[in-house]
Amino acid sequence: MVWEFGRPVVVAPMAGGPSTPGLVTAAAAAGALGFLAAGYKSADLVAREVAEVRASRLPYGLNIFLPSPPPVDVGPLREYRQALRPEAERYEVELPRLRLADDDGFAAKVRIAVGAAVPWVSFTFGVPEASVVTELRRAGCTVLVTVTDAEEARRAAAVGPDALIAQAGSAGGHSATTSPADHDGSSTAPQVVRDVRAAVGLPVIGAGGTGTARDVRRLLAAGAVAVQAGTVFLLADEAGTRAVQRDAMLSGRFTETVVTRAFTGQPARALRNRFTDTYSSTAPLGYPAVHHLTAPVRAAAARREDPEAINLWAGTAHAEARPGPTAGIVRRLTGAG
Ligand SMILES: Cc1cc2nc3c(=O)[nH]c(=O)nc-3n(C[C@H](O)[C@H](O)[C@H](O)COP(=O)(O)O)c2cc1C
What we know:
GO molecular function: nitronate monooxygenase activity
Family: Belongs to the nitronate monooxygenase family. NMO class I subfamily.
Oligomer: single chain
Protein name: Propionate 3-nitronate monooxygenase
Number of domains: 2
Shape: globular
Keywords: Detoxification, Flavoprotein, FMN, Monooxygenase, Oxidoreductase
Region (Disordered): 169-188
Strand order of the largest sheet: 1-2-3-4-5-6-8-9
CATH topology of the largest domain: TIM Barrel
Order of helices and strands: EHEHEHHHEHEHEEHEHEHEEHHH
Distance between the termini: 28 Å
Bound molecules: flavin mononucleotide
CATH superfamily of the largest domain: Aldolase class I
CATH class of the largest domain: Alpha Beta
Strand content: 5-15%
C-alpha cells in the first residue's frame, strides 16, 4: 500500500459521537482520510452513515470493534457494581445487571463493509479471522488492524491485512491492546511505529499524542506512512463531540490525562476527573461489561452537563485541540498554514 492521499493524515474513528459523516467528508475534502466509527452503533445506523459518505464519492474508511473475550472471573465485576452505588445515588439512576457478552454486531458490520466495498476498513480490540480479511480484500477493501506492540503486530500480520495502525499509550480513547492487564499507557508513537516496523514488513500508520506538525513529522521520520490523529479533531466544527466534552476541553480546568479502566473495563486515556480519581485504582478489567455498567451514570452526568463522571477521552496532546474547520486542523498538522 502506497499512501494515496494528498496529506499523510488519518482523522481517527472516534466512537461515542465525535465521528460523523460530515467529519469524514471534511477530512477527505482536505486531502486526508476520515473514518466512520461503527462502535456502539446499530448496524442500521452504520449502513445509513456508510451510504451517506459513499454518496459523496470521496474516499473514506469504516472502523469496526472486534468482540472481546468474556471475563474469566465475574467476582471483581460484582464488587465494582457495589462500589459504584454512591454514583447511582448521586445521579439518581439504577445500575444495570451485569451484561458480560456483547459482540457489537461484528458480523453485520463486516457484511455492510463488504456489501458497500468500503474503501478502507480498520479494526480495533483484536485481530480478525483471516477469512474476514480475505472476504473484505476480495470486495476491494483495504484492511487495517490496530496493534500496540511488536507481538500484536506479528499476530495481525499473519491474517493478511494491507497495513497496520501502530497505536501508542499516548493515544486518546481506548487502547487496542489485547493484553489490557499489562497496559500502562507509557509508550510513545514513534517508539511503537519503530517496534512494529522492525517486527513486520507492512506499511504502518502511527497513532497517539499527535497535536502539531512537528509530531506528524516525527512519526513520518520514524517510518510511518501516515499519522492517525483523534484528540486534535475533537473540537472540529464537523465533529459530533458532545457540548459537555467541548466545554471541559476549553475550560482549562482539566489539565491532565490518565489511563483508566474505570469507565469501560478496557484501558483508555481520558482527561482526569472526579470519576477517574475515585475509581481508577479499583476498577476491574472487563470490557464491555464495565462499559454497560457505568453507562447510566455517564448518561445522567451528561444530561446534567457534569463533566466529573463522564469519560472525557483525550490523548496527551489534548491542549493542542482548537475549535475550527477540520480542513484548518489538517493543514495545521501538515504544516501548510
Ligand atoms: C474520543 C475518542 C474516541 C475513539 N474511538 C475510537 C474508535 O471507535 N475506534 C478506534 O479504532 N479508535 C478510537 N480511538 C482511538 C483513535 O483511533 C486513535 O488511536 C487516537 O485518537 C490517537 O491518539 P490521539 O487521540 O492522541 O491523536 C478514539 C480516540 C478518541 C480520542
